[in-house]
Design goal:
six-stranded parallel β-sheet; UDP N-Acetylglucosamine Acyltransferase, domain 1; 1 helix; seven-stranded mixed β-sheet
């Protein structure tokens, strides 16, 4: 089931290897690119002009806003206290737990092999370093790295402009 008929794909979505992805019940915005070996589960949203790199897992309840970069092998979670079984020993089903959502705001970037724990918000224009484990909210424009991820800088203090807002057309004004 590479791309289910329950997926809502925007205009000009690029999926170079459609047989190597697993997408179901999600929404992918216009002009986004989805790499090989990516899984995006139901009730997740990928905004406009995003890049989701190979081997990334976007679970149920994740909202990725416009212009976001997700590096290779990024993992999202949606349950802080996962269990395989109920208290009586039976296998858990969807009725035994509830999704804890995660939001990645506009123009943020998440480096390869980062893990994003459920319930956090990654701020607008923020940068998550490769291999970081994000366990709490990341402020707008913050640079975070490490395990657990901690603030190490501010994207607005970089020499080069971190996001060419004027080149993003309608996205910059929304």
């Amino acid at each position: 089931m590479p791309i289910s008929d329950t997926v809502r794909l925007g205009d000009k979505v690029a999926i170079p290897h459609p047989s190597l992805v697993n997408l179901y019940g999600c929404t992918i915005g216009d002009e986004s690119k989805i790499g090989a070996f990516v899984e995006i589960q139901k009730n997740s949203v990928v905004g406009t002009r995003c890049k989701i790199s190979s081997h990334t897992f976007v679970c149920e309840g994740v909202v990725i806003e416009d212009g976001v970069f997700i590096g290779h092998g990024v993992m999202f979670t949606n349950d802080r206290y996962p269990r395989a079984t109920t208290l009586d020993g039976g296998l858990q089903t969807e009725v035994d737990w509830s999704v804890e959502g995660t939001r990645v705001k506009r123009f943020a970037s998440i480096g390869s092999n980062a893990t994003v724990v459920s319930g956090v918000t990654i701020g607008e224009g923020a940068l998550v370093g490769a291999g970081a484990v994000v366990t709490r909210d990341v402020p707008d424009h913050a640079i975070v790295a490490g395990v657990p991820a901690r603030i190490i800088g501010d994207m607005r203090q970089r020499v080069e402009e971190p996001v060419p807002y004027e080149l993003l057309g309608d996205l910059a004004g929304t």
